[in-house]
Each structure stands twice: as C-alpha cells, then as structure tokens.
C-alpha cells in the first residue's frame, strides 16, 4: 500500500467544534497524519489547552471563534483561516448539537436550534470554505453525519432530520463542486459516548440493549473514527465523493435477532 496516499503533510484542515468531544479526536487524527489545523469554537478561549496539544505534535494550529448560526461569524472565520495559512485543503464540518425529546414535546425553538446548527450551519460553513477551495482547484470536505442520517430513532426528530439532511446535502454539494476538484463526503458515526449523550451510558440496562443490537458488540470508541476521517481527507479518497461512510459497528444493518436464544428444531414434528 502506498502510505503517501494518507499523508497530510503540508495540508491545512479546518475542524469545527473542537472545544470537546469527537471534534478533538478528528483534529488529532488529521494532525498525526501531518495536517496543520484551524480549530474553532464559539468560545475561543476554550481551545487554548487543545491548541497546545496540537503544537506538541509539531503541527501549526490557530484557534478561531465560530458561531455556525451566524453568517458573519462563518465568513470571518473562513477569511481568517485563509489569511493565517494561505490555503485551506480540508474541512471537517463537525459542529453540532442535539435535543432529546418525544416528538410531541419538541418546541419551535428546539427545532430551530438543532436544524439551524447542524444543517444550515454546515451548509454555510461548507459554502464559505468551498469558495476558497474552488479558487485553488482542490478541496476535501467531510460533513459529519450520524447513523441517524439513514435510520430513524424515537426522541430524535430534529436531530434525525438535520442528519438526514446532511446526507442529502453531501450528495448535492459533491455534484456541484466535483468539477472544481473538491470532493464532499459524509462521515456517519454510530453510537459513540460523547458529552451530548453521556447520561444515556449511565443506564446499564440501556447500554446492554444497545450492545445487543451492534454486531461487533460494543459502542464506538473515538479512535475508531481516526482511519475514516483521514481517508476522506486524503488523496486515498480522490475518486470518492457524495458518499456516506457509516462507522457504526454494523448497527445500520438493522441488526436484530431472527431466531430465539435456544436451539431450534431442524424439522417439523407431526
């Protein structure tokens, strides 16, 4: 295998939502593959310690303020990122949020908060960065989706709508921008413990229920996503665009028991 296909040395990656959670793992995976980083958060100060970790790897990094619900903030971040490094090669569109409620309890503001952050925000960040990528004739955009991009779950109506939208948006942008040398793909994690959902994992009965439905019999660990994000950000994926890559332990197979948990008779008895 040609390892240079996965080498990101000399490239610059923006990773949104890097103050905590999976965003930091995505950023570190890219940095370990050689990329310099633009880190973003609504609270720039919250990025200080993580930026030091990136510098400790010998990579350059800048931290920028970004509110994905504010178009001026998006445009300012993109301009500042370009000014800092000259060219942006990779965007990981990770910033997101969730509200867990029965559908009948979802408010107008709940809906707007989730969909505006996850879907509208991702589009306008991609648009602002793609303008700059297109001018250079090269780019890799990785939109972060979810297993809810392809599966529906009760209690996650706004989130599922936003992540399903990310999958469709990815295909549309791939068609729009492919001729300019920009690929657009969706990385869709399955069930991972994050700051947003950690309370669920305190319920062992629910964890057992979840594990029973995952073919590899465990929830995801953050480093399970490292290879996928580097692949989609690198030359290894140069002919891959408009795709959704599920990293979910197989739960999207619709895993369920088709037999009971006991040996079945091999024939019919009279």
UniProtKB/TrEMBL annotation:
SUPFAM superfamilies with a match to the protein in the record: NAD(P)-binding Rossmann-fold domains
Gene3D superfamilies registered for this protein in UniProt: NAD(P)-binding Rossmann-like Domain (3.40.50.720)
Limits of the Ketoreductase domain: 11-194
Entry's EC annotation: 1.1.1.69
UniProt keyword Endoplasmic reticulum present: no
Any one GO molecular function term: gluconate 5-dehydrogenase activity
Swiss-Prot/TrEMBL keywords: Oxidoreductase
Enzyme class: oxidoreductase
GO biological process, one term: fatty acid elongation
Alphabetical list of Pfam families matching this protein: adh_short_C2
Family the UniProt entry places it in: Belongs to the short-chain dehydrogenases/reductases (SDR) family.
PANTHER family in alphabetical order: BLL7886 PROTEIN, SHORT-CHAIN DEHYDROGENASES/REDUCTASES FAMILY MEMBER
Name the record gives this protein: Gluconate 5-dehydrogenase
